[in-house]
Amino acid sequence: MSAVEARSLTLRRGGRMLVDSVTCACGAGRLTAIVGPNGAGKSTLLKLLAGELPPSSGEVLLHGRPLAAFPLWALAALRAVMPQSTSLAFPFTVSEVVGFGVDGIGRGLSRRDRARLVTHALEQADVAQLAGRPFQTLSGGEQQRVQFARVLAQLAAGRTIEERQILLLDEPIASLDLKHQLTVLERARQLAGEGLAVIAILHDLQFAASFADEVLVMNAGRLVAAGHPLQVLTSHLIHDVFRVRLASAALPAAPWVAAR
Amino acid sequence: MASLSVALDRSPLRMPSRTLLVIAILAVATGLVSLLALGFGAMVVPPGRVAALLVDAVMTGVDPMSTDALVILQIRLPRLLLGLLVGAALAVSGAIMQGLFRNPLADPGLVGVSSGAALAAAVTIVLGDTLLAPVFGKLPFAVLPVGAFGGGLVTTLALYLIATREGRTSIATMLLAGIALGALTGAFMGFLSFASDDRQLRDLTFWSLGSLGGATWTKVQAVAPLVLPVLLATPFLARGLNALTLGEAEAFHLGVPVQRVKAAAILLVAVAVGASVAAAGVIGFVGIVVPHVLRMAVGANHRLLLPASALLGAALLVAADIVARTVVAPAELPIGTLTAAIGAPFFLWLLLSRHRSAPA
Amino acid sequence: MPPACLSRRMLLCGTLALPFLPAASRAGGQRIVSVGGAVTEILYRLGREGDIVGVDSTSQYPGEALKTKPNVGYVRALGAEGILSLKPSLVIAVEGAGPPDVLRLVEGAGISVVKVPDEPSEEGVLRRIAIVSRAVGAEEVGARLVQEVRDGFATLAAARASITTPKRVLFILSLQNGRPLVGGRGTTADGILTLAGARNAGATLDGWKPLSEEGVIAARPDAVVMMSRHGGEAAPDPFALPAFSATPAARERALIVMDGLYLLGFGPRTPQAALDLLTALHPQALGKAAERG
């Protein structure tokens, strides 16, 4: 049984098929990358998997149980979602924003426990030095790392209720510098190693190829290919879906690794 | 309500020490302002006499016989209590509205709640004086807050129906619809003042001026049962409003029942604004200034912001009322003009400083 | 409130404020708060200005009233404590003074509140004088004043009888953005126009209402009456507006500007005010120059 399973998932909006009968399964302990050109329906698919949008037809199962059957608090302990970008209207500090991730999530945590989870998450996302800064004054990349810390904190708090967790990431590295792209993806990889089901929308096919256990290729609302990255991301498919030609015979490995 | 509040927040009353400190400071300030309000007025009553009268009234509960006693127990005390209730209600509804709209410039006045409440109060007066008077006699005051609440609620529900698609509210549509509804209620108000006779018109103008003059125990008794439950319910909204700051989707991901939080927020605001408009007319800027000052001073966390807004709003309105009724004594200034005179320049300064600090 | 309670309270108040407050029944020596321009005028004419301890902001005549007496605020926005702080024994207020709750609180303090009815007519003025003089125990002086005012109305009636063709007059309270606020039926403006033997050209309206441009033309006023502004500032010229330029009043440039309280106060000066207005409307008919207006 897969951690996340989509069955003929469809979303229709004004006669357009944003997501068109997608059936897929993402396993626990694996990092699944969703790739595809702009407007392919990647973000919409992720919203359907998160339960944020109700599908027109089809259903989402989490650990074999329909998503709609989960109460909100259980869902919040089971899966965390990192958005593409967030704007904040009020002057919350970075540690307050990360604190939202542990507020009301999980069970049996003292205030000190929650504070510890926040501190740990801040360190994991490399934003501990920003803890006292107002979120609004950060750069786009820093804000994205703070959101990542918030998601990590939510998972840590939720673990007190649910161990088989799910992490959904919508372009988590879009505005990050190279070093932090690697930090975030490595941390995501590590979480998958710990048994989580991690699903991430990625634009960089090289990163997808080197970090993901499996890729889902979306085009025009449909799932056009799924499987091991090196088997799926062929020069033929890349040409058909992304309208670019691969310069070499096969996708090269990522040229960078994090400096220790 | 009980089950709803449990769903919204499971631990609203656990507060860290800094929160408790801020609340304690504000509570002491509110208490001091209240003592000043009881001690100062056009009439000179020595502080010792004020204290003795209050103690007497609490211990024996006798009807006041002297002018001193009457001024303290029938004029200053109900006026103080009404000021505290209305100030707290206005500031808290402002803070809730801003959290709901994720916009620090939002205000119940902005989305038509205040004007809807004022219109309903005006309709209640005109109808009560013409159609219903032969049957029921003079309208009891307690009908007005209910009417005003009804007006505020109808306006907000209309707004909600216009701005909500598939259970999700678009903030932009809601703000625009709020402006349109405000104009519509303004038009109805104009029509009403055209159709009503001079005596009714005088009552109608009260709603746009705003004053705590004529505060009576009857008004306190009608307003307190509406405002106090709202104040007690707000801590349960804190987590939801905090999470909503990130966005509706993000709040949902964090396990917040977004639609229920929004419905509860709208309901609480309608009750609080309806009650205060009925008792004191439209008093502007408290709802926008108080939460702003607090966000700058103690941060944006709604767990602290909501109770602190209630206290500071109460203290501020009572302080403004002390000025309103002493500075030109024995005459009085309308408190609405006073809050506008302080609030409007502050608001402009706020807009300018936001403009300057906004990233290019 | 039961009368027994009231009298006991009054007694107590009187005792407590003994140095300032002689018993209310004695003629003269009262402490009166006067609310409403007409009430203050009547009290001055009764020679009771010494008893007045506070006036409202509409008490503009005589001019010394607001200069020498504490101001308790606008007639409809009074404060209970402000009034009580003057330790009055009596509050005389025009109908419509308030807020009602404030006057109720004052009454609750054992202070008698006398309401003076609002009736813009000859009988209304006489009744006001009678009520005020009875309230302050000045029936004799009051009776003389009533007679004097009644004589004034008789002179006015004679002048009115000499009018052969009544004029249609539009009374404009204010002229904002070129929109006139006009006195319709039941207003004090309607009352003074009737007394001055004029026809109210705004009588199609009820109360004070804004009149449209076409409404102005349809009203066909022979003359326009406006109130002079405080501080001697000139009133805006209505005939500069297109709608007014098409009226008979514009051809004659028949614009009469008079003091608002004098015209609309409905106090002891009303017969003279109405006569002044009448004279201004019909300068030839009376063989007098209009210099009075």
Let me know the average pLDDT of chain C: 85
Structural class of chain C: alpha/beta
> Could you give a short account of the major beta sheet of chain A?
6 strands, mixed
Strand content of the residues of chain C, in percent?
Answer: 15-25%
Biggest pleated sheet of chain C: 6 strands, mixed
Strand order of the largest sheet of chain A: 6-7-8-3-9-10
Describe the structure in your own words.
The complex is a heterotrimer of chains A (260), B (360) and C (293). Chain A is α/β, with parallel strands linked by helices and 260 residues long. The longest helix of chain A is centred in the middle third of the chain and has 19 residues. The mean pLDDT of chain A is 92. In chain A, helix 2 crosses helix 5, helix 3 runs parallel beside helix 5 and helix 4 packs across helix 5. In chain A, strands 6-7-8-3-9-10 form a 6-stranded mixed sheet, with helices on both faces. A 4-stranded antiparallel sheet of chain A has the order 2-1-4-5, with helices on one face. Chain A has 9 helices and 10 strands. By secondary structure, chain B is an all-alpha fold. Chain B has a single domain, classed as ABC transporter involved in vitamin B12 uptake, BtuC, CATH 1.10.3470. Chain B is built from 16 helices and 2 strands. Chain B has a two-stranded antiparallel sheet with strand order 1-2. In chain B, helix 3 crosses helix 4 and helix 7 crosses helix 8. Chain B is globular and about 60 Å long. With 293 residues, chain C is an alpha/beta fold. Chain C is built from 13 helices and 10 strands. In chain C, strand 1, helix 2 and strand 2 form a beta-alpha-beta unit. In chain C, helix 6 runs antiparallel to helix 7 and helix 7 runs parallel beside helix 13. The interface between A and B is medium-sized, with 30 and 30 residues.
